[in-house]
Amino acid sequence: MGAKSLNNLGRQRAAVPTVIGRCKVYGDPIRTGDDTVWLTDPMGLSHRECKAKADELAQMKGGA
Ligand SMILES: [Zn+2]
């Protein structure tokens, strides 16, 4: 442990995006930089893409 290992740690932390939560729709991890939307039902954060997919499925179910 010295200046070199500290430097490695810093680089690793920058390269791996931080998980900030879990997608309400599919339960996959949400990371910093992901495109997200805030849902009200169920209340929570989800990926914009997952929400769109869920909406599509709900519409198909309702329309059938
Ligand atoms: Zn998701």
What would you note in describing this structure?
The protein has 64 residues and is of the alpha+beta class. It has one domain (3-63). Helix content is 45%, strand content 27%. It has two helices and four strands. The strands form two sheets. The chain has a two-stranded antiparallel sheet with strand order 1-2. Strands 3-4 form a two-stranded antiparallel sheet. The longest helix has 16 residues, at 48-63. The protein is elongated and about 60 Å long. The relative contact order is 0.14. The mean pLDDT is 85. Zinc ion binds at residues 23, 25-26, 28, 46-47, 50.
Task: Give the topology, please.
Blueprint: H1 3-15, E1 19-22, E2 29-31, E3 36-40, E4 43-47, H2 48-63
Antiparallel strand pairs: 1-2, 3-4
The structure holds zinc ion.
Shape: elongated
State the domain count. Answer: 1
Please state how the strands of the largest beta sheet are arranged side by side.
1-2
Beta-strand fraction estimate:
25-35%
Total number of beta strands: 4
Distance between the termini: 63 Å
H/E element order:
HEEEEH
For the sheet with most strands, the description reads: 2 strands, antiparallel
Low-pLDDT segments, ≥5 res? none
Note the total helix count.
Answer: 2
Ligands and ions found:
zinc ion
**Which bin fits the share of residues in helices?**
40-55%
- Give me the secondary-structure category: alpha+beta
Overall mean pLDDT score?
A: 85
